[in-house]
Specification:
Layout (H helix, E strand, L loop, with lengths): L2 H16 L7 H11 L3 E2 L2 E2 L6 H18 L4 H5 L7 H8 L2 E9 L3 E10 L3 E10 L4 E9 L2 E2 L2 H4 L6 E2 L13 E8 L9 E13 L3 E4 L6 H13 L3 E4 L29 H7 L2 E14 L2
């Protein structure tokens, strides 16, 4: 069996095994359809076309995958890469606590849909619906009057694009986002936690410009970041998760012979130095019970 058929077999097997936890990916679908028509992929011409029958089968399978994924809560879908099988997902689903807190601006709707809290792991399922690419930053979580220190305690919070894409969403589909934190000292079953979430949604003012932050010529990298900023664009990494980059004007002591350095979770710097504008800042407070 040649490499092409072997790869197709692996993809089909993975889809069949993990269908319940796969999120729809319009960019993957576009690549599959592009391959079927002999389109380019990452600047390289695809040498072998995919048969129309295989494309149709993949599209039908993806549709079934989406339907299965929608049967789970937002937070379980967010945690899907940590879940081993459907049995574990069903157990965790029974511990999900609904929240349904909606926040809206003129161009976006953000819903804190539900939460999973077993006393040790706290996770939130968040839905964001917008046509514009939204960057999430300034996220802070307070539990029982104490702010969580993610740097010291290993949380999963980080700046990121809603839906992991820095480009406009054609159909304004709702993107599933989430936050997860593991307590060093678990709370006893039945104990309640008072949780406060702060999060800011930002958008590029004039579009984005990708920069390869892994190139060997660091001075050239900084020059590209600075040029994008001066052109009124928002510099982003060319590689996923496409984090927003801050130009050298941010700090006059930066060593441009070194790799990229910049602030984290800093809304003010994103607005001042990355040509971004604040769309909405939400603050939500709610109670959760350790299940």
């Amino acid at each position: 069996m040649d490499e092409y058929r072997e790869n197709v077999k692996k993809v089909k097997k993975a889809l069949e095994q993990d269908a319940a936890f796969i999120e729809p990916n319009p960019f993957l679908a576009q690549r599959v359809l592009g391959m079927a028509h002999g389109a380019t992929n990452g600047g390289l011409k695809v040498k072998r076309k995919v048969s129309a029958g295989l494309v149709l089968a993949l599209v039908m399978l993806m549709s079934a995958v989406v339907a299965l994924a929608c049967n789970y809560s937002y937070v379980i879908r967010f945690l899907s890469d940590r879940i081993e099988d459907a049995e574990q997902a069903q157990r965790m689903e029974g511990m999900v606590q609904p929240l349904g807190m909606e926040f809206s601006s003129t161009t976006a709707t953000c819903t804190i849909e539900d939460a999973y809290f077993d006393g040790k792991t706290l996770a939130l399922g968040i839905g964001i619906q917008t046509e514009r690419p939204v960057y999430l930053s300034g996220t802070e979580v307070q539990v029982n009057d104490g702010w969580i220190d993610y740097a010291e305690n290993g949380g999963s919070i980080e700046d990121m694009w809603a839906g992991n894409s820095p480009y406009p969403q054609v159909d304004a589909a709702e993107q599933i986002h989430g936050i997860e934190y593991t307590f060093m000292e678990p709370l006893p079953k039945g104990e309640t936690a008072n949780v406060t979430l702060h999060m800011t949604l930002l958008v590029p003012q004039n579009g984005v410009a990708e920069v390869d932050i892994y190139q060997e010529d660091h001075e050239a990298m900084w020059a590209q970041i600075d040029a994008a900023y001066e052109a009124g664009l928002t510099p982003i990494s060319a590689d996923e998760p496409h984090e927003v980059l801050i130009p050298s004007v941010w700090h006059d002591t930066l060593d441009k012979t070194q790799g990229y350095q910049g602030p984290l979770n800093d809304v003010d710097s994103l607005v001042r130095y990355a040509n971004m504008e604040e769309m909405y800042t939400l603050k939500a407070t709610f109670m959760l019970e350790a299940k």
